[in-house]
Design a protein that fits this description.
- It is a single chain.
- By secondary structure, the protein is of the alpha+beta class.
- Among the domains are: 4-89 and 124-202 and 301-363, FAD/NAD(P)-binding domain (3-Layer(bba) Sandwich); 445-567, Glutaredoxin.
- Helix content is 27%, strand content 27%.
- It has 14 helices and 26 strands.
- The strands form 4 sheets. Strands 1, 2, 8, 9, 10, 11, 17 and 18 form an 8-stranded mixed beta sheet that branches.
- The chain starts with 24 loop residues before the first strand and ends in a 7-residue tail after the last helix.
- Its cofactor is FAD.
- Residues 27-371 form the FAD-binding domain.
- GO terms for molecular function: FAD binding; oxidoreductase activity, acting on paired donors, with incorporation or reduction of molecular oxygen, NAD(P)H as one donor, and incorporation of one atom of oxygen.
């Protein structure tokens, strides 16, 4: 097993250095080789773009740090080519329990229905996530990683929105400085973002006056693989405690300490071990693997786009750890941004498409900050009235379902539904289900259309993503309507690469008239049609980041072409 926490990576000279340096404007430079920077660089490279990734360090993270990765992040990892490794190593879970003192208040299931490829969450130490992403990045020949390359200057040149606009980065290395030019720069360089500071920008929001202790404990334990949260437990009175299982027999325990706790003293084994012992009992053997004290803020930049510099992940927004909304929202930033940069650089979309990255992800950040703030206020009430309310809710929640909706031990991360996105085309007909324009696509089990084929079940999300996709629901053996055939034919011959997926609702041959290369699958359990509210002939236009941008009961060429232009910010789609 590789110890990702001890790996170091060599600095090497690049083509921009030395007396014979060749100066050229790179399409994209990503700053920061953390999880979000790596995911963004991989996604861009998979779109065929040459990418340079720079980092001021030469190591991966140490300590577990972010550990809780949502189903949406796992879906993204699948598309990036490393999802299976994440799930195989991680600890999968769907169930959580909430306690008050030593009594169980209630149990919840974050993925109560079957028919999904991935679990609700996987717990996995951040150094594994970074390691698996890095190994995937190293497989891509058009992705160059430059270690020990610190950004010390940022200057923008040219007219914004035109092809002459670019960014000049001053890079400090062990061999001295050099200039790195890029059409666009993605700043994924963390909460202290040097790029943000160099540009004189700031984040705004709220800092919470509380401290928490993280103790990663290695032990053999009988706790189930669930998320357990205690309010005012007897082993840590008047505070809260969170317990999660990680791989390698490591358990994450978060202890609320209060604002007056001394962060230096509380990290010492003499203070940590008794707290852990009080939770586990006197006979459980354990050892401390990593200890940290943290405070937290809910902050975001006013705008995630500044000219040709785009901010993603913690550099753009920061939330409290309750609800696992930090890293997961950062991966959603990366998937939103990568396809838009690719379309702009390939001249298939206008530069205005990048403005929608900012507006969509600012909307999502506000939603995450709102939920994160509410969780923090419930977990750590700052007034006597707030505490009375919280305790009353917990008392009622033991018997009454309505009160459980008010309990907030961390509203766990779900992708934002981009209802107001300008890339959406509004419904013209009535649909059932939650796959509205702006929603991230739901998964469903499929079967290969060849009835003689054998093998593992197929999944809908595996057929979507990376490019625009036309998702057609049709009846096996039936002929396509003329409007649908014309729409598919027009899209197949259009300027934007499209893929088509036909989901059949029965046995029999695929309809004639599907474009060459269409992926034909069967709705194995009827769940695809159910989740998409789809009847025969329904057509969905899916963005490269697996978000719905339009849907129709019956597609016709003009409507679909207008929707595609709108999704690319092409003029004339108002």
């Amino acid at each position: 097993m590789i110890d990702y926490q001890t790996l170091t990576f060599e600095y090497t000279r690049c083509s921009e250095q030395g007396p014979d340096a060749a100066s050229c404007v790179r399409p994209v430079v990503v700053v920061g080789a953390g999880p979000v920077g790596l995911a963004t660089a991989i996604d861009l490279a998979q779109h065929g773009l040459p990418v340079v990734l720079v980092d001021d360090d030469c190591t991966l993270s140490t300590g577990s740090r972010a550990i809780c990765f949502s189903k949406r992040s796992l879906d993204i990892f699948d598309r990036l080519g490393c999802g299976e490794r994440m799930v195989e190593k991680g600890v999968s879970w769907n169930v959580g329990k909430v306690f008050r003192k030593d009594e169980l208040v209630y149990t919840f299931n974050l993925l109560p229905e079957s028919g999904h490829h991935r679990p609700a969450f996987v717990n996995l130490q951040q150094y594994y996530v970074e390691g698996f992403l890095l190994e995937r990045a190293q497989e891509l020949p058009n992705l160059e990683i430059r270690w020990k390359s610190k950004v010390t200057g940022v200057a923008q040149h040219g007219t914004p929105g035109t092809e002459d606009a670019h960014v000049a980065l001053e890079i400090e290395t062990p061999d001295g400085p050099y200039e790195l030019l890029a059409r666009y720069v993605v700043a994924a360089d963390g909460s202290r973002s040097p790029v943000r500071k160099l540009m004189g920008l700031d984040s705004h929001g709220r800092t919470f006056k509380d401290r928490f202790l993280i103790a990663d404990v290695k032990m053999e334990a009988e706790f189930p693989t669930e998320r357990w949260f205690w309010f005012d437990p007897p082993f840590h009175p008047n505070q809260s405690v969170l317990l999660h299982r990680q791989p390698d027999n490591v358990w994450r325990i978060d202890f609320q300490l209060g604002w007056d706790a001394d962060p230096v003293v509380e990290k010492t084994p003499e203070r940590v071990i008794p707290r852990v012992r009080a939770l586990l009992g006197p006979d459980v053997k354990f050892e401390l693997e990593w200890v940290s004290i943290y405070t937290f803020s809910c902050l975001r930049m006013d705008s995630f786009r500044h000219g040709n510099v785009l901010f993603a992940g913690d550099s753009a927004h920061l939330v409290s750890p309750f609800g696992a909304r930090g890293a997961n929202s950062g991966f959603q930033d990366s998937e939103n941004l990568a396809w838009k940069l690719a379309m702009v650089l390939e001249k298939r979309a206008s530069d205005a498409l990048l403005d929608t990255y900012a507006s969509e992800r600012e909307y999502a950040a506000d939603e995450n900050i709102r939920n994160s703030t509410r969780s923090t206020d419930f977990i750590t009430p700052k007034s006597a009235v707030s505490r009375v309310f919280r305790d009353a809710v917990l008392t009622l929640a033991r018997e009454h379902a309505f009160a459980r909706q008010l309990v907030n031990s961390g509203r766990l991360s779900v992708p934002a539904v981009l209802h107001e996105s300008t890339l959406n085309t509004a419904d013209e007909e009535t649909f059932a289900g939650q796959m509205v324009p702006g929603a991230s696509c739901a998964d469903a089990p499929l079967a290969c259309a060849d009835s003689n084929s054998q093998g593992a079940p197929q999944w809908l999300l595996a057929q979507l993503g990376g490019r625009f996709t036309g998702l057609l629901f049709c009846r096996a053996g039936a002929a396509l309507e003329s409007d649908a055939r014309a729409a598919l034919d027009a899209l197949a011959r259009g300027p934007v690469p499209m893929h088509f997926v036909a989901v059949l609702d029965g046995e029999g041959a695929a309809p004639e008239g599907l474009p060459p290369g269409t992926t034909v699958m069967r709705d194995a359990e009827g769940l695809a049609a159910q989740r998409y509210g789809a009847q025969e002939g329904a057509f969905y236009l899916i963005r490269p980041d697996q978000h719905v941008c339009a849907r129709w009961r019956h597609a016709d060429a003009p409507r679909v072409e207008r929707a595609l232009k709108r999704a690319l910010c092409v003029a004339g789609t108002a």
